[in-house]
Design brief:
alpha+beta; Nucleoside Triphosphate Pyrophosphohydrolase; Arc Repressor Mutant, subunit A; seven-stranded mixed sheet; two-stranded antiparallel sheet; 6 helices; 24% strand
Length: 242
């Protein structure tokens, strides 16, 4: 907290806190879901005027006893039953007119899960829907802006960090890996250039195995070397640029 200017006193500040400075803090979570065919966003139908029938993101007010990070983790665990998901804070949204009920400042986060691996368990929200990222329509409040910003951050992070490997089987092919990148980035990647960049990271481990029980020519199987990743990250020599 900054020092109080000479022209003011603590009573002036208390008066401001009890009037103009009052605001609620919320968290909005952009939960991206991947299923090897498309990237989706978890949404729920809004029932708050004037946004009835529009879709919105999953969020909640920050409780008086928790930080914004704790609130975001609480929301994710309530929806998915998981407490160890990738979660990143992106930006704070503070337009005074963003919420119809008054001054609500929202902190946006995004997370990434595999939709066919985890069951949505929040029984209070019976109308949760996975909406393909390519089919999203204008959402309630400023949630379209929040989602777009978080999606751009996800695509940036995917090229800079190995955030997508948790969406793959423990043993995967390079075709599966490229498909994941193409779906999330929304672009077609050059096969040779993509594989060259992957090898340059030094983080793919050739298992010396191939696919089993497939109708086509079996492809080699790889796994992500998490131990080497931790070593490179701790020694600040990590190079990850896809």
């Amino acid at each position: 907290m900054t020092s109080i200017p000479n022209s003011e006193n603590i009573n002036t500040w208390i008066s401001e806190l009890n009037s103009d400075a009052k605001a609620a803090i919320s968290v909005d979570c952009v939960i991206f879901g991947y299923n090897e065919k498309e990237l989706s966003v978890l949404q729920i139908e809004c029932n708050m005027p004037p946004h009835e029938a529009k879709m919105s993101l999953i969020g909640d007010l920050v409780k008086s006893y928790e930080t914004v990070d704790e609130a975001a983790n609480r929301i994710l665990e309530k929806i998915t039953g998981l407490s160890d998901l990738y979660l990143e804070q992106v930006q704070t949204f503070s337009d005074p007119n963003r919420h119809p009920l008054g001054r609500v400042i929202s902190v946006a986060y995004y997370s990434l899960i595999k939709t066919d691996k985890y069951e949505l368990i929040d029984k209070e929200h019976k109308h949760l829907q996975w909406v393909p990222i390519t089919s999203t329509e204008e959402m309630a409040f400023d949630h379209q802006q929040i989602m777009n910003l978080c999606y751009n951050r996800l695509k940036k992070r995917l090229r800079e960090r190995p955030v997508g490997f948790s969406l793959l089987p423990k043993k995967f092919t390079l075709i599966q890996l490229q498909r994941l990148y193409e779906i999330i980035l929304g672009i077609k990647l050059d096969k040779r250039n993509f594989r060259r960049k992957l090898k340059a990271t030094g983080l793919l481990k050739d298992l010396g195995e191939v696919q089993q029980d497939v109708s086509h020519r079996p492809a080699k199987l790889y796994t992500f070397d998490y131990e080497r990743y931790a070593e490179m990250k701790n020694s600040n020599v990590l190079k990850f640029d896809i």
